[in-house]
Amino acid sequence: MILKKGFILLLVCMGLHGVLKANNIQVSSGTLTGQNTSGNYTFVQFNLGWDNSWRDNVNWDAAWIFVKYKATYDTTWKHASINTTQGNHSVPAGFAVFPAPEGTGCFIYRNSSGNGTVNLSNIQLRWDYGSNGVNDADMVEVKIFAVEMVYVPDGAFYAGDGNTAEVHQQFSMGNTINPFLITGEGALTLGGTALTNLGNRNAVGFGGSADDFNFVTTQSLPAAFPKGYADFYCMKYAITQGQYTDFLNTLTRTQQKKRVASDISGDAVPLFYVMTVSNTVVARNRITCPPTGNGTVNPVVFSCDRQDRECNYLSWMDGAAYMDWAGLRPISDLEFEKLSRGPLLPVAGEYAWGNTTIVCATTISGSENGTETITNLNANCVCNNPFLNGGDGNYGMLRAGIFATSTSTRILAGATYYGIMDISGGIEERTVTIGDVAGRIFNGSHGDGTLSSLGNANTLNWPGLVSGEITTSIGSGSRGGNYVFAIPSSNYALTISNRQSASFSESSRAGHRGFRGCKTAPVGTLLKPFNK
User: Fold this and answer.
1) 264 by DSSP, 3-state: which?
2) Phi and psi at residue 383, in whole multiples of 5°?
3) Sign of CA dihedral 392, 393, 397, 403
4) What is the pTM assigned to this prediction?
5) 14, 146 in Cβ contact below 8 A?
6) Count of beta carbons in the 10 Å neighbourhood of residue 366
7) Which helix (H) or strand (E) holds 431?
8) Which of 16, 129, 398, 481 has the most CB atoms lying inside 10 A of its own CB?
9) Residue pair 521/231 in contact by the 8 Å Cβ criterion
């Protein structure tokens, strides 16, 4: 729709697609209102809703909202500067809006205990368009994006679970098998024999880095590296195919070429399943472009008919680019264990849902339109490389959060202690490793919403940065296991503590790897659980 307010023309394009049974987050009825020409700002107004929201005495879920704009005289989408003062935005009663200090977006979440469906009308975020070089009379298009997040509170947690049967690089206390208690964000000594050190059993296993710390050498993990003690927001789900499609559709043609696997330089793209370099579906990835009629200059228009399905075939560089574009950041090796286990004592061999019970999905019920379910009894994970019966069939990814319902337990939902979904199995997720010097320089800096002209992330101190752009995967790894691993013979690979690929900096795209990001919680009010 085309709406007019003041001197700014707005074409609102929805940035979120699909219907997720577990969350169903949607943005609607966007407009610009309240333009102030003396202050060079206006308000982006919209409605927001999602299902199964909560706030309790542990944590809450939230929506991360950011905005892209394109002036009619320009050919590129740019990131909108959102005002950083909390009182300059408005949200309905019962909810809070909190802007990121760098102006890349806002968190919206409950300000008191409650649960259930969220339906918020007429939210207003102040866009300081003058800061972006937009003039009062310019005509612009705006896209509003929403990503569901989960708040992970600050506090101590254990790294490693003491499982004597798991020998692949698990964290431990010094040279013992005991879990290591993380009690702050200060610098740590890695390796060595002192019991106060963060050790690592059998450091150089499959996929291990030669630099991955062990009992002979020691390394320092700087205080700036995010260790999981401080609070942060984590994406509730891995990047979905719909979200990645939306991302691609805001890039220039040159940028798009870097972020897909197929050659899209010509008018014709015969291998139009662009993440798998195929003309048929592979591993259930369904991101496509038109096979012909793409021109050679303007951006390609991508689409996906399974928008709520987890996105596989993402390289480290792809995921980093998405995080930079969205104003988020990658997750660290240690934060992965915190967001999974929480403050609880470890259970040897535990999965993300806190015990050693696991049932692999085999059967899909219903058309895969966002309402499908897994129907084999007590299934809570994608594993055993199943050929999925029903739905679209085949091997590969499922709808994000498919095991969760409004009544499911943590175990049946496959959820972490904090309510984050799909961590064990399904898709391996790229993380920042502490087992390589290129990972240890990571300081938790956030993306600024802007990529390089070639489509690469360009945030300082992220793994893979070469000459100002992230073009390698050195310093990254993968955690959480994937759907290919067999149960029970390889069940250790899906556990929280397994670090088999934690320092494996694979640069290629793969059908069993994806990405999920996070954001350090901004300092301010309404950010602590009620029992803090």
Assistant:
1) coil
2) -155, 180
3) positive
4) 0.94
5) no
6) 12
7) strand 428-432
8) 481
9) yes
